[in-house]
């Protein structure tokens, strides 16, 4: 309307101009007349234009007034009508970015709204779920598997003023795998006319957190639990008094011979061994049990809801698996074992976890002190005090046995397996026993303690002196020329003695003192000792060989390292590791190992001895393989060395009378 007045003015001028031309006034007058005519017409023209403009202004005022009213009405309508679609899109963006999935349900549980994020998480289309019950679309469970969707809705209806936070829960979409979401619910509108479900996807975050937790709670090498996470787990169950009738068993495990493998083959081999041992633990325990690597070659096992006898059975089965296990590394084969300490306990709120682990470690230490490769149970306090006291008294007990000659020597025969072998001597291995409380302790019961107390050199010298004394006592002069059967004794040397530079002078002095033929003495050195102390072993073995003594490499096959070192040692015998011989009949692998060791001996012109022969079937199999000698209970039980001396002396007496 703002252009009406100018337009009317132009229209008026146009009308006047047209009238002048059509009337012929311009043709009838002169220029002066034209100007006079225009001057007379101007007032009338201005008056007409003024009247037209007044009318236009009146009409304009009326028209603009109605337009303002219309605009006010429209503005009011905008305040009450829904927002335009573009603003709705912006709201969706805000909800998706800040809240995640949003679903609104009325008091009857019927869905009235769902945003885009909720569509993506539930995989339900928005236009298909509007009007559906929320429990049909939003399937939620807590981490224990309990449904919580309907419970959350009902709780909000009953308590509209209290928003609910559920933390992380499981969301099951229409198709596909479950997802983890953080769930919040609250009422909106007066009298809780609607309930809002807000859930944010945290599946990716949870995976990252779980991966970080796993890295923090697992041993990087074996993927077993580490010490920290294991102790936390045990502490949690140890203080859980909700099931007081359930007992648990904690086991402390320490590998035997690990240091030899680690030092001989390097840390890569040690790491690989630990990985394979971890697999043995996993296979041997129950699904509910936990296994951890505490550090180095130390492991721990937690047997949940397990009695003492059941725990012993489980750990004994693990020990059996470890005994039968052979670790191979770059052509070398090793056997291992373990010492296990057990403790049974009941959950209690005041239970001291550090003391619990300490008691299990003490039981493991006791198992080592009693000979390794066994299970020791931490019993009631008095029995444990007696056991600890016995361990602490080892030093005095062993020193007294050396000083007072309390040790007893036994001899076990080493018999030939082939009748065609002509021998003018009999062979026996010298074994050590210790009398203790009306019993005889095997070497495994006290020699590990003696090794820790640095008493092995003294014990070895005691054995050498007593053995040579026995040979001198049963020696016959045989002046009448009657042939007699000589006796060869095999004496074990410890790692400490191999490294003792004064050992050879002592042996030489004892041989001269008793006048013994050095060829009737054979010294045994285990393969593990020879490998780990090779320089010292080679030195002492060459010295003893130069003196005329024979040498045995004991437990051959347990280390089975590079055979090149055998050429550098002046050996006469290879003694096959008894673990292979014990399972010779039942295990094709062990049979192959025995055969391989014997073939090595043949190539290097060495005689082979199989130990731990306990039945006739094994003996027959050894003969078939071609092994030269056998030793074990089936071939002959150990007898005291004094009885052997008396028997030899009596045989000599009979031979003399017959002559």
UniProtKB/TrEMBL annotation:
Its cofactor is Mg(2+). GO terms for molecular function: catalytic activity. The keyword Cytoplasm does not apply. This is PAS domain S-box-containing protein/diguanylate cyclase (GGDEF) domain-containing protein. PANTHER family: DIGUANYLATE CYCLASE DGCE-RELATED (PTHR44757:SF4), DIGUANYLATE CYCLASE DGCP (PTHR44757). Residues 94-142 form the PAS domain. CDD domains: EAL, GGDEF, PAS. Residues 391-652 form the EAL domain. GO terms for biological process: regulation of DNA-templated transcription. Gene3D superfamilies: 3.30.70.270, EAL domain, PAS domain. SUPFAM superfamilies: EAL domain-like, Nucleotide cyclase, PYP-like sensor domain (PAS domain).
